[in-house]
Write a structure and sequence with these properties.
alpha/beta; Hypothetical Protein Ychn, Chain: A; 6 helices; 5 strands
């Protein structure tokens, strides 16, 4: 489904009696797809309705690249990582990166850098490394999971 259709669908759902209680799953690369961009737009639209609640955003597969603090987009391009961090700081929405997918792609937190005896970590602020168990908890605690790939 196209991103603008999802946003329109969400806005129309806001008129319904029952508020949404959901989580997002993002699997598309932030640099090769528009998955992270579309999820961000969707989330901003969802936050317009204060009755909706979002338990968290789980980044999986290549989408974990969004949490790499060492990436620097060109100055004339939209910094999608920075936009996610600003949004989570403003609305206190947890951003989870799959730990296995992250470590495989060189994204590690301070604990993992010590475990692998590396001199530094590369996890961006605002993101946290979690296992698939966290995603299962999100699935069990929400009424909807919306995937962007």
């Amino acid at each position: 489904m196209r991103p603008f259709l999802l946003v329109n669908l969400l806005l129309n759902c806001n008129k319904a009696q029952n508020p949404m209680h959901y989580a997002l799953l993002v699997t598309g690369s932030p640099y090769q797809t528009k998955a992270c961009h579309s999820a961000l737009k969707f989330l901003k639209a969802a936050l317009l309705n204060k009755e909706n609640t979002l338990e968290g955003v789980f980044f999986y597969e290549d989408a974990v690249l969004i949490g790499n603090a060492l990436t620097q987009p060109p100055r004339d391009e939209f910094d999608v990582r920075k936009a996610w961090v600003e949004l989570t700081n403003e609305h206190k929405i947890p951003l989870y990166l799959c730990i296995a997918a992250s470590v495989r792609r060189g994204i590690i937190n301070e604990t993992e850098s010590q475990r692998y005896e590396l001199p530094q970590h590369s996890l961006s602020e605002g993101f946290q490394l979690e296992g698939l168990g966290t995603f299962v908890e999100l699935m069990n605690s929400t009424t909807k999971i919306i995937q962007f790939r």
